[in-house]
From TrEMBL:
Domain EB1 C-terminal, chain residue ranges per copy: 183-254
Species this chain originates from: Erythranthe guttata (Yellow monkey flower)
Family per similarity comment: Belongs to the MAPRE family.
Region Disordered, annotated ranges: 124-186
Subcellular location: Cytoplasm, Cytoskeleton, Phragmoplast; Cytoplasm, Cytoskeleton, Spindle
Polar residues bias locations: 170-186
Keyword Cell membrane applies: no
Coiled-coil stretches noted in the UniProt entry, renumbered to this chain: 191-225
Keywords from the UniProt entry: Cell cycle, Cell division, Coiled coil, Cytoplasm, Cytoskeleton, Microtubule, Mitosis
GO biological process: cell division; protein localization to microtubule; regulation of microtubule polymerization or depolymerization; spindle assembly; thigmotropism
Record-given protein name: Calponin-homology (CH) domain-containing protein
Amino acid sequence: MATNIGMMDSAYFVGRNEILAWVNARLQLNLSRVEEAASGAIQCQMMDMTYPGVVPMHKVNFDAKTEYDFIQNYKVLQEVFNKLKIDKHIEVNKLVKGRPLDNLEFLQWLKRYCDSVNGGLMNENYNPMERRTKGGNGRNNIKVSQKNSKSLQSNNSGSCDADSRVHGRTISTKQGKSGSVTSGANSSMEIQALTSEVSDLKLSVDQLENERDFYFAKLRDIEVLCQAPELDDVPRWRSRRYCMLLTRKSLHSLKLKKSCHNLSMMNFLLMTEIAKVKNSIIH
């Protein structure tokens, strides 16, 4: 019987879709995301299916909405683990946050454990929908499968109920349409704002790249001039003074970039200053 399962066990390589299919088939649900199991009620019912009568279903809240209600369900589950002597610590603080990875890993462990108990076979005598009615609030807001919902609707009769359902659907349809239009307008505005922000960021990146290339080119010019053969016969102190003057003149010319809009004019001024310094030293 699998209780302590290492992280490299094959159980943790079971995909999300397979886990959801396993839960939906066993409990006749229609879950589409593993985060929907964050309340802990599904895990409690899985243990109830594996060990019928062990889980106090009247304490399980299938209508849990808050983290406090989630914690109460996990307390029930931990009590069941302790009663069955299952050495498994439930990381409640992580699970109640509804993070997909944490809930997926716990469901992967639960599937491995349940399969080790019943050999992967379903309990044909177990009625999950009936057991959910034993829940603490007496309600069941977990998504049931479409097949079961259709069968329940077919059993309901009466013209009054039918009229009320039609009227309710008409109102909900109108509200859904108006809500979708509003949400669509908000989404389009958000998309436009994000697109404008991306364009501004791209423009800033292009400007920074141009400025980077400009400074690099000027530094490269300084490096080339410092390696000129004319400096071989110049005393070291004059060569050092030459580099200092050249760097100072280059920095002075670089400051012109803020006020000079013509790049070619700025390059001309900089090269002129460099040539003046070079000639003054050589002669």
